[in-house]
Write a structure and sequence with these properties.
With 229 residues, the chain is mostly helical. It is built from 7 helices and no strands. The chain is globular, with a radius of gyration of 20 Å. 35% of the residues are buried.
Length: 229
């Protein structure tokens, strides 16, 4: 029997022993294999930043508004903390809510976004208290702002029914996070209180959330049910 010359005409299937299933290696195409961070090329970062610039809209105005409840320039760090906590809540909720044919891949994607947001939350909170005082992470103020951020995120996104709508909301939330980081860098820099360590921390968190935007955009651009490698 002659060897096939055009594999595109062949139906291919991959069977994985359920007892040997590794979600990090057998995940959908929009989730890269393994846990290492996605390293975005310069062109990809530019695409992400361009999309965020269009999407975050009035983030800067919102950050300035919320920061007034804390007083002082370090209040902007508190607002960023709120944005990160809101993002974690949104992604974790979508992890529970997603359904349909793309359920398993989306379930993993939202779990990754939630889990990988937590370290940044802890780092920003500790840095904020260290630079200022415990009042900058006051739980009542944080809870009030968190509810407002989540509400604004859902109201600002045209939500379609189903998992694609969840992806759209998560993308919108990530745009707010990156917009808030940009405002914090600008305000602290202008005030002369942006140390090298704080700037590096903020840039590292920005890099991580740019990766999140990239993954979510990849989820939109490929069929979530096409598992071919």
């Amino acid at each position: 029997m002659p060897e096939p010359t055009d594999l595109s005409d062949q139906i291919q299937a991959v069977w994985v022993d359920p007892t040997q299933f590794d979600p990090l290696r057998h995940a959908p195409p929009f989730l890269p294999p393994g846990r290492p961070a996605v390293k975005l090329a310069a062109t990809q970062k530019a695409q992400v930043q361009g999309w965020v610039k269009q999407a975050h809209g009035d983030t800067e105005q919102s950050v300035h508004l919320l920061a007034k409840d804390y007083g002082g320039d370090l209040g902007y760090m508190s607002v960023l903390l709120t944005c990160l906590r809101a993002a974690a809540m949104v992604h974790q909720t979508h992890h529970w809510q997603t359904r349909g044919q793309s359920f398993y891949g989306d379930h993993l994607l939202f779990e990754r976004l939630y889990n990988d947001t937590i370290p940044g939350i802890d780092s920003i909170a500790e840095r904020t208290v260290g630079l200022g005082s415990p009042s900058l992470v006051d739980p009542v103020t944080q809870a009030k702002h968190l509810a407002w951020c989540v509400q604004q995120c859902y109201q600002g996104t045209p939500v379609e029914e189903g998992p694609n709508g969840l992806v759209a909301v998560s993308l919108h939330m990530e745009a707010h996070v990156l917009g808030a980081i940009k405002v914090v860098l600008k305000v602290l820099g202008s005030a002369g209180i942006l140390s090298d360590g704080t700037e590096n921390l903020l840039q590292d968190i920005a890099d991580k959330h740019e990766e999140f935007v990239y993954l979510l955009k990849q989820r939109n651009d490929v069929s979530p049910y096409s598992y071919g490698r």
